[in-house]
From TrEMBL, chains A, B:
Pfam families: PPK2 (PF03976). GO terms for biological process: polyphosphate metabolic process. Residues 11-233, 268-492 form the Polyphosphate kinase-2-related domain. Gene3D superfamilies: P-loop containing nucleotide triphosphate hydrolases. NCBIfam families: poly_P_AMP_trns (TIGR03708). Keywords: Coiled coil. Residues 2-33 form a coiled coil. This is Polyphosphate:AMP phosphotransferase. GO terms for molecular function: polyphosphate:AMP phosphotransferase activity. It comes from Neoroseomonas eburnea.
Length: 495, 495
């Protein structure tokens, strides 16, 4: 696949100057439009062989475009902060918001490719990493990121010539490091790993563009033209039609409706509650003070029907914890900065360090619940969310997190009773709004969405716990006891 | 000052239950109003002697209030990420936004007090830290943060009794750590340091409230009532009047007008420019590749008249740098998340790590320039900003940053010429707006603001460089050369 890129090209100085002036003007105009529309972000990945002018190209883009709205990120060895989070965390942090351009100099493929070349990663491990990368790139593309992946290529002979000429010139010899020379010696091994990598990760949504890099002027115009074309195509495309509400999904058939299969009203006396709650809280308190607790993190997700008692359960849970070591993230409407990013970005920013516990009061599941039912997300978007969410949670668990997900279920009658009670009690009245009553009318649609959510996202590593919540006392004990058990299991795995 | 706090108090169970129910309702209502108004954040500092019920109180607040809108932060030893930034950075990151409550469990005073007790910090060093803290607290209060500082106190006898009773009970004995026992042994030393600390940092804006902590019920009601009173007082205060435009300040008298003293038109031939620019860029490139560069950070601030050529200078500066190792922060209108925080918050979040360079294209000086002249900030607010800015920059420099500030100055005639040129050139037209012409009408007011800004904020550690910019070539060379020199100096200091 590199044959075309190894052809020799010439561009005269004069031709270059003429085209560059025009290109620059057009690129600047496109960048301005990008910033005004704020419809999508642009993410440019710069990769390829050493000595192929990657740095020079990034400099050039900064010169051609308005550098204030470009953010260049280099990804070398992770810092301590980065190292304690899942590997993709640092890339999420650096994503450009809508209307801006991000350049990743080296990206998610850099470390796996290097490790594969050096033999630290076998073919199976490499394939797994490649899969992860493809899922991420697909998700970004589907979230509207204009993802442009440039691979700067030189043949072995071209690379050799380039390094020689850099070394000869006193002004540029510092650019050739010992590391470059080592890589040059591994040229064949490197290409042997990269060639299939490029082939397999050149997907429909995010193909690689191989840049013939031997001639500086040709390379510059090549990248400039390609970038301009890609920008224009997206800028000129009509704005996507507004999302139409998805027709209410049919309720799950009775025999596989896992919610209707629950016995929502569970008995528990006040005395048993006091005893069992204290016991469960004690277990959780001990687990979170365990000496190995510092090497795992805990993520507790709370979803449930309106008025199912999430707040009360969270409060009893918090009472068992050191208040410094946990935080509650209430998930409501996203902020301006969050709206300018892919959907999962606002959850990634709250992923805890080891030794910390984060409670999400509502979560990323909003996409397949309220956003689905109310039509805030288009069907293809919430459909793909199941896989994206599983992928997200897998990354958390692989990095040592315990992910506990609770669905607090109450019956329609019980909800009605609680709504009425809230309306009748002065200090609870703020908890009940018109919207709650409206949501209630879509009870069946919500129930169907919950069934499908549990079906698709209850995984071995991050299972859903369905909590019968008509009796609050039972629900609280079940939540805390389950979490305690899961943390204990997590501690065993961390051994 | 602890006498009153050492008195013994009793509250019967029944009295407690009665008052608690009412207090709880009122606190919840106040918290809800806080969230609806979103006018100010609440920051609660929890400090005091060991065993005085600090944890218990935080638990209680989480129980009384809606814990989803409370964020508790504990500040132990800094992480690597925190350690490479100025000491106050981690506190800035954890500040609650408007409408929410933040609880700092241990805060900026914890480390200095501990170090003073252990003798690692002398009286002079301690006084300096105390000064820094008072400046920060005053700034937060003036930015509208409701800052509540609770000091939980026990007499030596009370503390002894408390520890004994914790140790006796199997359920609570784990709460007494070896650390607690050490602190108990140092009770007198601790009080000897804390007493004057509390006295001196009990300022009008942010006084300490000493909590008599021996009796659990009394302590709970004491804190609850105080918190409620403080919340209500702020919630019920009328919204501050809208800022009125500050009357245009008089221009600085000719003889001390440092801008008019400049010779704005400096000669430089194109040939000299090419040579000197390359030389300055080379110096900067070498300095930022120096082996000690990894232990300093660089912050370059660009301010100047409209059309003074900031963009062009920034571009040439960037050309000398590794694009991965610098970023440009264009400062425009703050985002929603930024508007919910104290003024300097949005700059703190961009403070670079060692080995990195950040260019601010416009900066925190907006407060004493555009916000002052256009009346976006009230006079007392921009007046206090000089000291706050000096304090901010001092923290950066103390932490090893080079802070270079450039004012690019052009004459009124030159600006007129450039505005006209922009209007006449197709691809520059977007750079000139009605607003630019309007700002120009306030030329004298801006000039006076610039003179005062330089006068008050050009410090030994972070001096202003005034750049004569009628000739762009001269300006670019001066900027890059100056920055190169400052980085070289920084490297020497870092030795």
């Amino acid at each position: 696949m590199f044959e075309a890129a190894e052809l020799e090209h010439e561009v005269s100085k004069e031709d270059y100057r003429k085209e560059e002036a025009e290109l620059r003007r057009a690129l600047l105009a496109a960048q301005r439009e990008l910033g005004q529309q704020r419809r999508f972000p642009v993410l440019i990945l710069i990769a390829g062989v050493e000595g192929a002018g990657k740095s020079e190209t990034v400099h050039l883009l900064n010169e051609w475009l308005d550098p204030r709205f470009i953010e260049v990120s280099g990804f070398g060895l992770p810092t301590e902060e980065e190292a304690v989070h899942p590997p993709m965390w640092r890339f999420w942090r650096a994503l450009p918001p809508k209307g801006r351009i991000g350049i990743f100099f080296g990206a998610w493929q850099t470390v796996p490719i290097l490790e594969r070349v050096l033999g630290k990663l076998g073919p199976g491990g490499f394939a797994t990493r490649m899969e992860e990368i493809m899922r991420l790139e697909r998700m970004l593309a589907q979230e509207g990121v204009l993802l442009l992946k440039y691979w700067f290529h030189l043949s072995k002979a071209q690379q050799k010539k380039r390094i020689k000429s850099l070394e000869k010139d006193k002004e540029t010899s510092w650019k050739v490091t010992r590391y470059d020379r080592t890589l040059f010696e591994h040229y064949d091994d490197f290409i042997e790993v990269c060639e299939p990598y490029l082939r397999e990760t050149s997907t429909g949504e995010a193909p690689w563009t191989v840049v013939p890099a031997a001639n500086e002027r040709f390379r510059a115009l090549f990248v400039g033209r390609h970038l301009l074309g890609a920008l224009r195509a997206r800028l000129d495309a009509p704005a996507p039609a507004a999302v139409k509400a998805t027709p209410a999904p049919p309720a799950a058939p009775e025999q596989v409706n896992i919610i209707r299969a629950l016995t929502l009203k569970q008995e528990m006396s006040r005395d048993d509650y006091d005893k069992e709650l204290a016991e469960a809280q004690g277990r959780l308190a001990r687990a979170t003070r365990h000496k190995r607790y510092g090497s795992i993190s805990v993520i507790a997700v709370f979803e449930g029907n309106d008025a199912a008692g999430k707040g009360g359960a969270v409060r009893r849970l918090g009472a068992a914890l050191d208040p410094r070591a946990y935080r509650i993230v209430p998930v409501a409407a996203p902020t301006e900065e969050e709206r300018a990013q892919p959907y999962l970005w606002r959850f990634w920013r709250h992923v805890p360090r080891p030794g910390r516990l984060t409670i999400f009061d509502r979560s990323w599941y909003g996409r397949v619940l309220v956003e689905r039912v109310e039509g805030f997300a288009a069907e293809p978007d919430w459909r793909r969310a199941y896989a994206e969410i599983n992928d997200f949670e897998e990354q958390l668990v692989t990095n040592g997190a315990v992910v506990a997900k609770f669905w607090l279920a109450i019956s329609k009658d019980e909800q009605h009773r609680r709504f009425k009670d809230r309306e009748a009690t002065a200090f609870k009245r703020h908890k009940i709004t018109e919207e709650d009553w409206r949501n209630r009318e879509k009870w069946d649609a919500y129930e169907a969405a919950v069934c499908e959510m549990v079906e698709r996202t209850s995984t071995g590593m991050a299972p859903w716990t369905l909590v019968e919540a008509d009796n609050k006392l039972h629900a609280r004990v079940k939540v805390i006891r389950t979490l305690a058990e899961m943390v204990e299991d997590g501690l065993k795995r961390a051994k």
